[in-house]
Each structure stands twice: as structure tokens, then as C-alpha cells.
Amino acid sequence: MIRLYDFGIWLYGFGLWLASFFDKKAKLWVQGRQDIFSNISSQITDNQPTVWFHCASLGEFEQGRPLIEKIKKDLPDYKIFLTFFSPSGLEIRKNYKYADHIFYLPLDTTKNAKQFLKIVQPQIVFFVKYEFWYNYLKQLNQEKIPTYLVSSIFREDQIFFKPYGSFFKKMLFFFDHIFVQNEYSKSILLENKVSHVSVAGDTRVDRVLEIQKNKRSFDEIIFFKGNTEILIGGSTWPSEEDILIKWIYTQNDLHWKFIIAPHDISEHRLLEIEKKLNVNSVRFSKANALNSAAAKVMIIDNIGMLSSLYQYGKIALIGGGFGNGIHNTLEPITFGLPVIFGEKYQKFEEANKLVETGGGYSIKNYDEFNYIMKSLENDDFYNNASTNAEKYVLKNQGATMKIFDFIFKGK
Fold first, then answer.
1. CB of 182 within 8 A of CB of 199?
2. Full-model pTM
């Protein structure tokens, strides 16, 4: 099986190399790994103890971030070595100030794993949520380097627990300890004789509370909002935008304004949204006091401000639920916003709990969205939803401290 796995890894790398000739993201993936070992070696100039964090992309980074910053604050003698698999993570966070070194993860081969660990020499390793690379994990285990999986979620239908998944299940035993988000994940692991597990929760909760505490203010949004209520479309795709824009058509009074923050902010997508709108809109990059106040819709054409924008909202429509899975719902509920999203939310612990408690609502189409919006116009219904949304965050904070204490204080 290992030969088949290694061949699959090689094939994956070769496929990305071919794709790099016509795909920008694939090109970044390939270029970022050129001469990577010599680049790493040139940066590491001392024998200071190192903690290695590996994240697939931006979402996983935000999950690992509270733990990185906790270590940096309380254990300043450690250097942080941060790797990403995807360009969408590294290119956005390549200047992250709390990491001493930031690189792409070399392809998962035995040779690369040995060379990487020989150069970096980490004392402790954290893989975040869903990252499982057999050769790296096996080599870490063989070299007896403490390795932890944090903020993970497990389901019965994952390959680890299939009759043909024994090879992948081995990877779970390479970790010294696995920190899961919920009791259900723990029970699945225990049923499969993976006993080095404990429930810590989701470190992203600690991150969004920190964002709330240090939220940024935007004069353009204050001018735009005025005395209205704002419905925010966060990380939207065309499916959510079509629903939102159809609903905008029905709002002829001055009660509502709308912010659309698309997942893809390419010029093509921004123009696509603007063409669909039949009301006055303005892009954030072109906003001023006059045109903001006059606009019905604000289109966010940058990355990085959405998490603070939710402070101005009343309700959030979150993107991704009609595709591969919803985007971040923790950011809006931290500010007490009820959230609405598509059908594909089951892989996200917080979304499941929000649907159960009435702080979040899953929809299949425009009619269901319209029904929820009308329900939320009732003050009692809205206040209950808002309270339930915020309660989830307050109830589930503290995962970072649980993990930190377990590893560094022996608790």
C-alpha cells in the first residue's frame, strides 16, 4: 500500500506541475517548493528550540493561530516554524509576525520527510484539523518527536474507519495525542481503539473572540449604515448571491442595506455581481462619505476585513453551503448575528449546534430564505436566535488553554 500511496503523491505533484503552466494557484504551489530545502537551511541559523505547525490552508491557520500566539507569548524561547500546503494560506499569511519561519510543506515523500526534519529539528509538532501526511507522520513517530493533532473532527464515513482504510488508520497512531472538537469524535476513535484522545473543543472560538475584542472600525461602513439594518453576505458564491439579490429586489423601503463580501474577489466576479444588481452599489475600495451613504449595497473587494464587518450587521448569509461546505460562521455569531446557510453544513460542529439551538438556519432555496427572514423580523424570534448564536461562542471558549496546559504543563 505504501508504494501505491507514494505513487499517488508523485502523480499529484506531477499533475500540479503540468497545471502550473496555465493555472495561477498551481504555479504558486510549484514555485513555492523550488529549492525549498536550501531556502529553509539558509534561514535556520541557530539551535533555538522549534515548534512546527502545519496547516492545510487559511482556515486551518486561523484554527492553529491562537495556540501559536499562546506559545509565543508564554514560551518566547521557542521559535515557530509554520508550513502551509496551499497557496491560499501561505500567500495571505506569509508575513504573519508570530511565526519565525513560513514555508510550503515539501511533497510527502520519505526522502523529503527525513530531509525536512533533519534541517528543522522541531521539538514539538502540531498538525491542524484535517492534515494527514503518512511519510511525515511516520518519520516523526520513528524519531520520537512529540506530534499532536488539534481541533480535529471525525465521522464514521471517513476512510480511516472503512474496511479498506487500515493504511490510513495507521496515521492516527503516529500522533502522541489527538485533540478533538466534540464527544462524538472521541467516541468514534475509542471504538476504533484509538485511545490517545481528549475533547478540547475548537481553537477557532478563541480566535474569533480575540477578533471581537480587537475589532477594527471602518468609517466607510458607518457612513453606509446610517440608521439602517445590514444583512451581510459573507464569503458568498453565486448561489448565495442570487438568493440575496432576489431578496434585495423586494426591499423598497429604507429599512435594510446590504453588504456582499464574495469569496472570490477577482474583477470578473465583482463585475458579475454588479451587473446583477438593479440598485445603487459601491465597492469598498471606492467608497467615501457621500457615495457610501447613497448606496444600497456595499461590495467588499478585499480580503481581511470581513471578520470585523460583522459588528455592523444584523443577520448574516454565509457562503459555501450550496457547494463544498459552508465558510466561517463563528465570526458573525461572535457578534450575535443569527446565521443562514445552505444545505452542506454537517461537517462543521458549530453549524450543527446552531441549527439544533436555533442560532443558525439551513436553507435549500430562496423561498426558505424568505421564510427565515420574515421570521427574524419578529423581535422575540430574532432576540432568541441572536442569544443562541452568541451563547455557542461563550460556551465553547477555552480550547487553546486546554491544549497548552496538557502539553506544556502536563495536565
1. yes
2. 0.86
